[in-house]
């Protein structure tokens, strides 16, 4: 049975919610930034550190592998100890490791630091998104959660600008990699004083504390019964393996992986990929990569505007269809004109926007409070381990098979995402958080 409207689920958009949305978006911004900046930095540091194909792939994939561990482990920890405690600790780790990257002298040192940064970013995903989902009313939840990916692409675009600025500076790669500490420091300051999630407090039986947070955020007339969740439930990781939740894990983790494997490969080695297509390398390749990043960002805008009217399921299906088409064009026509190549990349990038938006909406909506961060972390981990393997193997594929077959492999992966979406994607638009996460609501 659907829950009646509540003061929390139907509350207005407030300054608190705006602030929470802005600073929760810091993790995605940093993820996009650190992923793209390494692809540009590799153009300089590769010769300086004498990287071979193995170390190029390892360093390119290091942060993604760290994201796997960070998401899988710290999502569960966040469900155990709370969202507030972890909300700034992970950012401090990013600041320290980013600065240390400026002083590396060996490939192994850089790999270790990139891996550690990935762990911290992976930890931030379940922390920040769960916190935002649990405060956001249903009318704004899809837009706010989906809007986080806009910051991912904004981070990627910013990295292209920073990379372009330092591309011709001797040792500029050190400044590129160390620059991630600046937005991380701003986020630490901005996140200070954020309250704990009332839903999480209720799930742990801390009713008085939850009541205090609700009144602080929503007003003096709001109490526990307005929340829609009033039961204390123990956090058990194995609950994710129960049939209905396992099905949701397979769906979210699977389509997310199919989406990000080609996407992250393009981002990490964007200039090299454009060079393999015969487009000029150097600063112009960086600018071309930046143009593709802009289309990734632009694709998110219609998705955010339509997410409540069009719905989650049709948006995902149509997007995967056009993404698959674009990848096949690149695979079958590697010697096409510059206009066709850039247009195909732009088509893929633009229609990557809606699935990217749903990457943050689906996992937060489909799982209850006591395992929400664990589920987000696990789905993030599944997607990133696939992306890490794809990013590591991409230099080998380009070297062994060439650009056409490499793009065809990406096309097949994207096609698998389309098939998974067609058969498994649920619809959650208009539901409360409790309704969407209930096993009785969605088949």
Can you tell me about this structure?
It is built from 19 helices and no strands. By secondary structure, the chain is mostly helical. It has a single domain, classed as Growth Hormone, Chain: A (Up-down Bundle), CATH 1.20.1250. The radius of gyration is 21 Å and the shape is globular. The chain starts with 14 loop residues before the first helix and ends in a 6-residue tail after the last helix.
How do the SSEs run, as a string of H and E?
Answer: HHHHHHHHHHHHHHHHHHH
- Note the total helix count: 19
Q: Which radius of gyration do the C-alpha atoms yield? A: 21 Å
Number of strands: 0
Shape annotation: globular
Strand content: under 5%
Please mark out the parts with pLDDT under 50 across 5 or more consecutive residues, or reply none. Answer: 1-5
Under CATH at level 1, the class stands as Mainly Alpha
Largest sheet: none
Quick tags:
single chain; mainly alpha; Growth Hormone, Chain: A; 19 helices; about 450 residues
Topology:
Elements lengths: L14 H10 L1 H23 L4 H29 L1 H18 L6 H29 L2 H29 L5 H7 L2 H11 L6 H6 L3 H12 L24 H26 L1 H7 L6 H24 L5 H21 L5 H14 L1 H13 L6 H29 L2 H22 L8 H5 L6
Characterize this entry briefly.
The protein has 443 residues and is mainly α. 76% of the residues lie in helices and 0% in strands. Helix 2 (26-48) packs antiparallel against helix 7, helix 4 runs antiparallel to helix 5 (107-135) and helix 4 (83-100) packs antiparallel against helix 8.
